[in-house]
TrEMBL record:
Catalytic machinery residues: D7, D9
Phylogenetic classification of the source organism: Bacteria, Bacillati, Bacillota, Clostridia, Eubacteriales
Family in the record: Belongs to the HAD-like hydrolase superfamily. CbbY/CbbZ/Gph/YieH family.
GO molecular function ontology, one term from the record: magnesium ion binding
Origin species: Gemmiger formicilis
UniProt keyword terms in alphabetical order: Carbohydrate metabolism, Isomerase, Magnesium, Metal-binding, Phosphoprotein
Protein name, as recorded: Beta-phosphoglucomutase
GO biological process: carbohydrate metabolic process
Length: 213
């Protein structure tokens, strides 16, 4: 393994909780049942795909224009919640792990479905650790398509089989496996089928086999 590609929401930070709060506000307004279990199915899935999954539980048929406005409304609530995040909102151990891997010159990238990645990275102050950042603004196919990770590997000048993807979502694990990457699963993705490294914490990355840190 030569390089590491990190998912963002749910791996490096817990903005997944803010996604939940924003979608819950929209679902409540539309009287659609929504809970953390449904929210977990949205991990790693693009904004519009997430909305489609939520609207499956509604008897109402929404036009494309209405769906666009609902997604925009959700994003405005989400971005409002993001305004106050700082490096304190990083996942446990994330800063130390990034600092240590950076110090030993492991090429690192972010591979996220989120179009809000630039704002989140800036608020967390972690941009300096990464050689490449690929997000929802640069891709046409969302996870489980491997596009986001393939582009990240290309930017790192690495073959997929030489990169380890760190993911918290089933869609993300599938994307990585579909692209021929090694995968470390954390949180809900720890128990996904075919994960190469189930992680209880990010710091376990420092002990991954073939890793020079
Ligand atoms: P946005 P990741 C994903 O980020 C989130 O897990 C998912 O819940 C969200 O719908 C998606 O980004 C799109 O986010 O609305 O900000 O563009 O886990 O791939 O880093
Ligand atoms: Mg994620």
């Amino acid at each position: 393994m030569n390089a590491i590609i990190f998912d963002l929401d749910g791996v490096l930070c817990h903005t997944d909780e803010y996604h939940y709060m924003a979608w819950k506000a929209i679902a409540d307004e539309l009287h659609i049942p929504f809970n953390r279990e449904v929210n977990n199915q949205l991990r790693g899935v693009s904004r519009m795909e997430s909305l489609k999954l939520i609207l499956r539980n509604s008897p109402v048929c929404y036009s494309e224009q209405e769906k666009f406005l609902l997604a925009e409304k959700k994003n405005n609530i989400y971005r409002e919640l993001l305004q106050n995040i700082t490096s304190k909102d990083l996942a446990d151990g994330a800063w130390t792990v990034l600092e240590k891997l950076h110090a030993v010159h492991i090429p690192m990238a972010i591979g996220s479905s989120s179009k809000n990645t630039p704002l989140i990275v800036e608020k967390l102050g972690i941009g300096k650790f990464f050689d490449a950042i690929v997000d929802g603004n640069q891709i046409s196919h969302s996870k489980p398509d491997p596009e986001v990770f393939l582009l990240a590997a290309e930017k790192l000048h690495q073959k997929p089989s030489d990169c380890l993807v760190v993911e918290d979502a089933e869609a993300g694990v599938k994307a990585a496996l579909n692209g021929g990457f090694l995968v470390a699963g954390i949180g809900p993705a720890k128990d996904c089928p075919n994960v190469n490294y189930p992680l209880l914490s990010l710091s376990e990355l420092l002990a991954v086999e073939g890793h020079p840190a």
